[in-house]
Specification:
Length: 217
């Protein structure tokens, strides 16, 4: 039996729908449901998969949620209207196993849940279209560069970043130059600070577990 968790603002409605889809498939059991990922994790259950609504009302990002679940060894399947391509890309970069659309026929949703719970990737034509629309937006930054970018996007100055990370200001300046150079290699030249902030958000580089800026982003 595969133990399934569900996280959705409209928990009761979504669970009711999914239970009806899964009724003929007792090997797929909805074990727990919650409105937020932190709430789900309080149950401390061994789950094979979490079916995750893309955008929740607690202010979390898809990257936050997929990362938090992954840290507990729980894979994720997005369950979404599919109308937020930037958020879908963010969740995919965080390691979501795939996506099912809420408008998909029930058999397709069941197949996606079964595949993801069994460790398979679920790359539907819809998901492939979303990912292919922007295949190289985010560079492969090292953890150190990711942290510099996240702090810079949150409004920290180069001097403040240096203080927070115990680096020399010139080192931080060099890191920011390397970050811009890696974006330029992908065709994103001469990014302003606001553009770099947006790039950091879309690339899923903000709000990592270690990310504690002194200023709101």
């Amino acid at each position: 039996m595969r133990r399934i968790g569900v996280v959705d603002d409209q928990r009761d409605f979504t669970v009711s729908a999914l239970r009806s889809y899964l009724a003929p498939h007792p090997e797929l059991d909805i074990t727990v449901a919650a409105r937020t990922v932190p709430e789900l994790l309080t149950f401390d259950l061994a789950l094979d998969l979490v079916v995750l609504d893309l955008l929740l009302g607690d202010g979390s990002t898809p990257f936050d949620n997929v990362t938090a679940l992954d840290a507990r060894g729980i894979p994720t399947l997005l369950f979404t209207s599919g109308e937020e391509p930037e958020l879908v890309r963010m969740a995919a970069r965080a390691g979501a196993r795939g996506m099912a659309k809420k408008s998909d026929p029930p058999p397709a949703v069941v197949d996606a849940i079964r595949a993801a719970a069994n460790g398979e990737s679920v790359v539907s034509p819809d998901l492939a279209t979303v990912l292919d629309a922007d295949p190289a937006f985010a560079p492969n930054l090292s953890p150190q560069l990711q942290r510099v970018l996240a702090l810079y996007a949150a409004g920290e100055s180069e001097r403040d970043i240096a203080e927070l990370m115990e680096l020399k200001p010139n080192t931080v300046k060099g890191y920011l130059g390397r970050i811009r150079a890696q974006y330029a290699e992908l065709g994103h030249d001469d990014l302003s600070r606001s553009e770099l902030k947006r790039a950091a958000q879309l690339g899923g580089f903000v709000r990592r577990p270690w990310f504690q800026p002194r200023r709101g982003s």
